[in-house]
Amino acid sequence: MIEQRQIKISFLEAILLTIFIIGLISFSIIKLESVPHIPIILSIIVLMTYGLFKKVPFSQLEESMVNSAKTGIGAIYIFLLIGLLISSWIIGGTIPTLLYIGFSIVAASFFYASVFIITSIIGTAIGSSLTTVGTVGVAMLGVATAMDASLVITAGAIVSGAFFGDKMSPLSDTTNLAATVTGIDLFTHIRNMMYTTIPAFILSLIGYAILSPKSTSIDEQLITQYKAVLLNTNLVHWYALIPLVILVICTMFKIPSLMTLTISTISGIALSYVHNAIPLKELFAILYSGYVANTGLEAVDSLLTRGGMNSMLFTIILIVLSLSMGGLLFSLGIIQTLLSSIQQLLTSIGKAITGAAFTAIAINFLIGEQYLSILLTGETYKEKFKSLNMHPKNLARVIEDAGTVINPLVPWGVCGLFISSVLQVDVLSYLPFAFFCLLSPVITILFGWLNITITKEH
Fold first, then answer.
1. What is the rounded distance in angstroms from the CA atom of residue 183 to the CA atom of residue 257?
2. pTM for this predicted structure
3. Is 455 left (phi over 0), alpha (psi -120 to 50) or beta?
């Protein structure tokens, strides 16, 4: 173990470095449309240069990055297994069957409520908000146009449902990331989020039901086409839901995430041989590179062409880089200096939760990246929550409630830019109708002040 050299850094230095790094990352992502990896590497170089200028040994800087990155090893294993799980759930028919069920609900009387439910189901099934928006969301807007419904409210319902799935799905990288950053089990995190998520879901559903046009004259031709294409894949079967049932049962019995995902993956692979025997060589290729659909309908192909270990590398690399940057920020005392200036304000559970929520929201608006809002907020508030005797799962819930679901409401954010481009609806236009995204941070802050569902550390 290398002896750590403590350095003193002024508040001015800390704030200037923070502003520079945030500005660099924001400019790269928003203006240059870069992936976040490159500006984070540049930020690491800047921080290491500053550390060397302050006469901090290079070995200490290196160790701080390595030690911080080590905390993400669990997430890396989880993400690799999720890549396998998605592939197995597609070839086993679980995801296609869930898609079929989702499309079947669209015939309900309350259209906006139906859209919210459908995108919630599909978002949870596939664990990707942007994929849900870019495929099913586009289809739902087509249905809205056919029945002369409001495209703006429909877009709000699509975004709300998609990010409900992104937040609650065990397949979602943001859900896994929040659990990993705070050091808790994935399914412990999901169960704890239900306390704030279910009220937000119910209130959103009521809102969309009230706003829905009181008409059932929906042109079902598009939906019928989607369902027919899914049936033709021979992947839609009632028994295809078995891997999902296994996942739920394992969660209820609190089986560790790695074992749960492994068991569910094996069940999906086993099911694939019931309706479609896949040669072993092809199976291995699908598990690594993902499933490639060829149904003849581009929207359905986009939904089913996904999965594989390889699909997780983007997020895994980002986790390692972001955690390394976080290690430097702490090793150089930058985070501690910034926090110490407001430390006296965070004297209660309500204030700490509010501070964490607003930090996650601020990072989303400053940087436009939901991963960093989760990572930086989680790393920053770990010790504060611990000092207030709060279980880490409280922090994990806050950074999801105020981090994950806020990014689609940021016009220059990664998700906001994608959604407005795909749906052809401005972020500021659908923002007032993205009920779930707006309610989540409000409820989590309110619960903090009222000390509702706050778990203490034993």
1. 13
2. 0.71
3. beta
